[in-house]
Amino acid sequence: MTASVFFGCTFIAFGPAIALFLFTIAREPLRVIFLIAGAFFWLVSLLLSSLVWFISVQISNKESAVQQKGLLIFGVVLSVLLQETFRFAYYKLLKKANEGLLALSQEETMPISIRQLAYVSGLGFGFMSGAFSVVNILADSVGPGTVGIHGDSQHYFLSSAFMTMAIILLHMFWGVVFFDACEKQRWWAVAAVIISHLVVSCLTFQNPEYVTSLVPTYIILFLMGIWAFYTAGGSLRNLKLCLTCKDKDFLLANHRPR
């Protein structure tokens, strides 16, 4: 493998997320702080799920392939449930923090809206999730070794990059839908986020049959993107105005809290 594979896969995996960060978050210190805090919450959820999984492996029969596969599935499910639990905990914390900022602020409106918090925290979750998903793969992409030399798929790195990009964007969409559902107490929407997260995570068990994992994942990504778009107050009209740069208020960089 060459450096071009490394940089190409990195660009595919993190390119859209970095662009979103630079254009919508980087210029606002408060948003940067909330994004880093969201990444920290995701990291804590990973630490707890890893600890439980490690203990489970140590007390299990390591020579039993069936038991080890069952523990792997258990670890994935536990990790997803803990991630969503910490997403809810972060939502509650942000609500309290926003109320405190409003009390300290001399303005009548909140310094940052719940919709913006949902977007920023979701992207924070996605960044950290993507980093842990693909960092070891990217390290291996510079060699030594040749992918597919024993007849395996040669699209391992490319498929991993596209899956990482989907996971990052999905976390952003899940955050928007999840926070809105908590605000309006639509618990069926919260359940839908958790179920779709479980489905996407379990689809990775289909690898190395990458088509059977990537295609359903991107279908879910497309549907969640539409859901998050309308949840955030989007419509076909303001999407058209945004794409033609005629509606500056629709852009997050100029979005007023409400």
From TrEMBL:
It holds the Pfam family Aph-1. Its main location: membrane. The chain crosses the membrane at residues 6-25, 32-59, 71-90, 117-139, 159-179, 186-206, 212-230. GO terms for cellular component: gamma-secretase complex. The keyword Cytoplasm does not apply. Potential subunit of the gamma-secretase complex, an endoprotease complex that catalyzes the intramembrane cleavage of integral proteins such as Notch receptors. This is Gamma-secretase subunit APH-1. It comes from Lates japonicus.
